[in-house]
Each structure stands twice: as structure tokens, then as C-alpha cells.
């Protein structure tokens, strides 16, 4: 099929326009964080770094960042362990109900957050009788983070094949030795990529968080949501939003560089 | 038993190995998630005592009767469904040409860069994106200013704002699977259609499009399902509008059984949607 030059140009222009629309709102948040005016009006009235300075000494924002980092780190560790085990089982064995297990891993992220959120908070508070707090939040986040590690590990195992592991076993290495010396080193960058994605996913999450965190735990997105409509806080919320963009996009950029096939990373959301 | 004898037993018994690998993650997913979803379903058929606010664990259809009978729930369900369908349509309409350009026209090098360019905003925080659209749409904001140049204004906060913001948030989720689907269409098929005399428009409609539909549907599952459950965007740019998510959230504190029953509406709608698209083979593309 030969596509005429004007069609090509048109499609290129549409793609370019969509990219502009995709990035402009994010750029606007960055610009607003340096805007002297507190109203969200355009064009900006002047340049200032005072919101950044005030955000830098805002104790609420500090605590929230710390909470978010801790929650994301704990959820990532759990997701790494569970996702790797699951990836090994699904890629190296075939068994009855495999499709169901596949669906089960994806479900926490494919169902709307509100369903996952209310289901978990209901199970924690009215069935198990656990008080909502830091622990329940980590459990909830780990549940929907498993899929990112799982996808990366599975994709890597598929590409690795089983030859090296079989060779290692033939040469007399036990299972643990083979895993430690053969499988794990090959998985390392996939684990790093999956872990980074899990971290970014947990760091950003707001809907499940509002249900599973309980009143005492304020993550960064929760802090933004509670301060959003408070008078005079809008500029500082903007600064925190810029921090969130950077903290969540940087790991993706890294993960992207670590996985040779970019569609692996896109699959992580699926 | 020594470590090495455990190891040799395990290497002779793949079943036990598989069991050990699956035990922890499956226990986690079933205990935490499946049980929670089942419990949600059960809770929807419970009620609360109107005097003490205590949960009454007796089976009743009151909540279901309330959500199917009252006009409020019907209006909000239709509005939510409308937003989800519009968002999905807009995203599909954008993803079809953009995905085609990325997979079939752009050079190999710029293709990789384009994938990354569409991937990065996908991971930027959902909340921050809604926030960005709040300032974009606000009175005297960027959209008002840009619209003023051509004699238009910002639509302000409301139904249109919800649709625009949601379409923005989920766009990369639709573009990437559509791109991946285009990528899998062999160029030789396009050449064959061209050699046999088909014009590009005919080739696209009869050869390319049927092969891309599974990817399109896979992407639409995300835009549809995630919009159905949203309540944060609505609060930030929706003005006084409510979606199903808001009703679930508002009731979750005071009347959990009712909230659970309302949460069943998006679940049922999504199940119907999945059943409808199942035949396209899109579920294997997720």
C-alpha cells in the first residue's frame, strides 16, 4: 500500500498535535509552580521560587513524602517476592487453571480502583477486624503491584529459555544453586524494571489509598487531595505535584532503559 | 534431611516445586483479593440498623431494590456510562491514526522514541493529571486564553470537563495496545493488497482494521473500566456532577452495604462489556 505524501503529513501532524496535548497540561503544572499569581490564570504574571521555598519547609508535605516512599518501598519488596515466584511458576510449568491465575494477577489493576478499594477496606475492617492504617495500605498496594513484577519476570524468562538452567542441572548443580547462579543473574534487570514500575505505581496511587489507608496515614496523593481546596495552599500543591511527576516518571524512564523491549513495559499496566 | 537431599527430592518432583512456587502468591491473591471481592458481594445483601448504625448480617434485597428503583441511581449510572462511552470513543478515534503513524510510517528510530513519549505520561500521577486539567480549564486559564484567540472559551467545570480529563488520562492506555496491534500487521499484507489494486482506504478498511480491532478493544477495556470507577476526577473538574464512584465513596463511611451494592453496578456493566468484546479475542491481548 502506498500512502500519499499528504496523508503521511496529515498523520504526522495529528501525532504531533496529540503529543503536544499530552505534555502541555503537565508542563502547565510546572509553569504554575513558578507563577507569582495564586489564581490558575494564563498567561503567568511573573516568576517566583517562593512556592518552592515554602514547600521545602512544609512539614506536612515532608511527612507525606516520607510516608509515600516507605509505603512504596514495602509494597515493592512484597510485590518483588510474590511476582517472581508467580512468574517462575507460570513460565516454567503448565497446570490446570493457569488462565484463571493469569486473570487473578491482572484483576486488581483492571477493575476500577473504587471496586478494589472498597472491597479491601470492607474485608479489612468489617471481616478481619483489622484497623486501617499503614499495614493495610501496604497490603493493598502490594496486591496491585504484583502484576508489574510478574509481567517483567515472565517476559524475561520467556526470552531466556530453559537451556542454561538445564545445563546447570546436568552439570550437577542443585536447584537452589542453579537459581542463585544461573536464573537470578539473568533476571536482575527485569526485577529492577518491574520493581521500579511497582514503586511508581504505589507512589502515585490515590483511589485504593483513600479506602485502605485509614485516617492516620497521609501519603503524598492524599496530602494533595486534602490541601487542594484549602485557601492559599494551591501554589504549594502545584510544587508537590511537580515533585510527583518527577518521582513517578523517572523510574519509568529508567525501567524503559533496562528492558530492551519497550512493549514489555507497556504490558506492565495490562 | 540435609539441604542437598531436599534439593534432589525437589528436582525429581516438579509437582512439589510448582506447589512451592505458587503457594505464597496464590494464597496472597486469593486471601486478600478474591475473598475481599466475595465479601463485597455478600455485604451488598446485608443492611445496617437504622438506629445503631451496626451492620446487620441478614440477607436482604433492600439495597438492590433501592439502587434499581430510585431515579438518582439510574441518572448517575446513565451519566457514568455516558462518560465512559464518550471517553472510549474519543480515545479510540485518536489512537487509530496515531497508532498507524507510529507503527507503519515513522522510521524505526523515531518509532522507539514515540513509544517512550507516549509511555511516560501514562505513568505520571493520575491525580496530578486531573489537577493539571483543573488549571487548564479554570476561568481565565490556558484554555480560556487559547480559546479566546479563536473566539471560544473554556467549557468550565462540568460534564464536558470530566469527559475531556478522563479521555486525556486514559489516552496512552489505548494508544499503546493499538500501536502494538498495528505493529503485528505484516507489511507484506499491505503490499499484497496494493499490488492487487486496492486503494489505501480500501486496504485499511478491509485488511488492516480487522487485524487491529483486538488491540483497539483491549485498550478500550481500560478506558471504559477505569472511567466507570472514577470519583477523583469528578471531584476536581466535575463541578456539581456525581458519578457512581462518588456515590460509593460517600456511602462507604455511613452505609457500607449500600456502598457495596452501588459498587456492583460498575462491576456488572464491566462484566457485560467484557462479555460483549470477548468474541473479538481482545482478552488474550491484555
Automatic annotation (TrEMBL), chain A:
Gene3D superfamilies: MetI-like
Main subcellular localisation: membrane
Keyword Transport: yes
Mode of membrane association: Multi-pass membrane protein
Record's subcellular location: Cell membrane
Annotated InterPro entries: Bact_Polyamine_Transport, MetI-like, MetI-like_sf
Domain ABC transmembrane type-1: start-end pairs: 65-255
Coiled coil: none
One GO term describing the cellular component: plasma membrane
Membrane-spanning segments: 65-89, 101-120, 132-150, 190-214, 234-254
Pfam families: BPD_transp_1
GO biological process terms on file: transmembrane transport
Key words of the record: Cell membrane, Membrane, Transmembrane, Transmembrane helix, Transport
SUPFAM superfamilies in alphabetical order: MetI-like
Family, per entry: Belongs to the binding-protein-dependent transport system permease family. CysTW subfamily.
Record's protein name: Spermidine/putrescine ABC transporter permease
Organism: Nocardioides luteus
From TrEMBL, chain B:
Localization, UniProt: Cell membrane
GO-annotated cellular components: plasma membrane
Gene3D superfamilies recorded: MetI-like
Transmembrane segments: 20-48, 81-101, 113-136, 156-182, 202-224, 256-276
A family per Pfam: BPD_transp_1
InterPro entries: MetI-like, MetI-like_sf
Main location: membrane
ABC transmembrane type-1 domain segment(s): 77-277
Membrane topology: Multi-pass membrane protein
Entry keyword annotation includes DNA repair: no
Source species of the chain: Nocardioides luteus
Family, as annotated: Belongs to the binding-protein-dependent transport system permease family. CysTW subfamily.
GO BP, sorted A to Z: transmembrane transport
Protein name, per record: Spermidine/putrescine ABC transporter permease
Keywords associated with the record: Cell membrane, Membrane, Transmembrane, Transmembrane helix, Transport
Signal peptide residues on this chain, from the entry's feature table: none
Top-rank lineage group of the source organism: Bacteria
Amino acid at each position: 500500500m502506498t500512502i500519499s505524501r499528504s496523508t503521511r503529513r496529515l498523520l504526522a501532524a495529528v501525532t504531533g498535535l496529540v503529543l503536544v496535548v499530552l505534555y502541555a497540561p503537565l508542563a502547565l503544572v510546572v509553569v504554575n509552580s513558578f507563577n507569582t499569581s495564586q489564581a490558575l490564570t494564563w498567561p503567568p504574571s511573573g516568576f517566583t521560587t517562593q512556592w518552592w521555598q515554602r514547600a521545602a519547609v512544609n512539614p506536612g508535605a515532608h511527612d507525606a513524602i516520607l510516608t509515600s516512599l516507605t509505603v512504596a518501598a514495602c509494597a515493592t519488596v512484597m510485590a518483588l517476592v510474590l511476582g517472581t515466584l508467580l512468574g517462575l511458576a507460570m513460565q516454567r510449568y503448565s497446570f490446570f487453571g493457569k488462565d484463571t491465575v493469569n486473570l487473578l494477577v491482572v484483576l486488581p489493576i483492571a477493575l476500577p480502583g473504587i471496586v478494589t478499594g472498597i472491597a479491601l477496606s470492607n474485608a479489612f475492617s468489617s471481616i478481619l477486624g483489622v484497623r486501617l492504617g499503614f499495614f493495610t495500605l501496604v497490603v493493598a498496594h502490594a496486591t496491585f503491584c504484583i502484576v508489574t513484577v510478574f509481567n517483567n519476570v515472565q517476559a524475561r524468562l520467556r526470552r531466556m529459555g530453559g537451556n542454561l538452567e538445564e545445563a546447570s542441572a546436568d552439570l550437577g548443580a542443585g536447584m537452589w544453586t542453579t537459581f542463585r547462579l544461573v536464573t537470578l543473574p539473568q533476571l536482575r534487570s527485569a526485577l529492577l524494571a518491574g520493581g521500579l514500575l511497582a514503586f511508581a505505581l504505589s507512589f502515585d496511587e490515590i483511589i485504593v489509598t483513600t479506602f485502605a489507608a485509614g485516617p492516620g496515614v497521609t501519603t503524598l496523593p492524599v496530602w494533595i487531595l486534602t490541601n487542594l481546596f484549602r485557601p492559599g495552599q494551591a501554589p504549594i500543591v502545584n510544587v508537590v505535584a511537580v515533585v510527583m511527576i518527577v518521582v513517578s516518571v523517572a523510574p519509568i524512564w529508567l525501567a524503559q532503559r533496562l528492558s530492551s523491549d519497550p512493549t514489555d513495559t507497556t504490558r506492565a499496566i495490562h | 534431611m540435609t539441604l542437598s537431599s531436599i534439593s534432589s527430592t525437589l528436582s525429581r518432583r516438579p509437582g512439589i516445586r510448582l506447589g512451592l512456587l505458587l503457594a505464597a502468591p496464590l494464597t496472597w491473591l486469593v486471601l486478600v483479593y478474591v475473598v475481599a471481592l466475595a465479601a463485597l458481594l455478600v455485604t451488598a445483601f446485608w443492611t445496617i440498623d437504622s438506629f445503631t448504625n451496626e451492620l446487620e448480617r441478614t440477607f436482604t434485597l433492600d439495597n438492590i431494590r433501592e439502587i434499581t428503583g430510585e431515579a438518582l441511581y439510574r441518572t448517575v449510572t446513565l451519566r457514568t456510562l455516558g462518560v465512559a462511552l464518550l471517553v472510549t470513543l474519543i480515545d479510540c478515534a485518536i489512537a487509530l491514526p496515531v497508532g498507524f503513524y507510529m507503527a507503519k510510517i515513522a522510521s524505526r528510530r523515531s518509532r522507539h522514541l514515540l513509544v517512550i513519549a507516549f509511555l511516560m505520561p501514562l505513568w505520571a500521577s493520575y491525580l496530578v493529571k486531573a489537577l493539571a486539567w483543573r488549571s487548564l480549564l479554570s476561568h481565565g486559564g490556558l484554555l480560556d486564553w487559547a480559546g479566546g484567540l479563536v473566539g471560544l472559551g473554556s467549557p468550565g467545570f462540568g460534564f464536558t470537563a470530566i469527559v475531556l480529563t478522563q479521555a486525556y488520562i486514559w489516552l496512552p492506555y489505548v494508544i499503546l495496545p493499538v500501536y502494538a496491534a498495528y505493529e503485528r500487521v505484516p507489511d507484506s499484507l499491505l503490499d499484497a493488497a496494493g499490488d492487487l489494486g486496492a486503494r489505501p482506504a480500501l486496504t485499511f478498511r478491509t485488511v488492516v482494521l480487522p487485524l487491529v480491532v483486538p488491540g483497539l478493544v483491549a485498550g478500550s477495556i481500560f478506558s471504559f473500566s477505569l472511567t466507570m470507577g472514577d470519583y477523583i476526577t469528578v471531584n476536581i473538574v466535575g463541578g456539581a456532577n456525581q458519578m457512581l464512584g462518588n456515590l460509593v465513596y460517600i456511602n462507604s463511611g455511613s452505609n457500607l452495604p449500600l456502598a457495596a451494592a452501588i459498587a456492583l453496578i460498575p462491576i456488572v456493566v464491566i462484566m457485560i462489556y467484557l462479555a460483549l468484546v470477548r468474541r473479538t479475542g481482545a482478552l488474550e491481548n491484555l
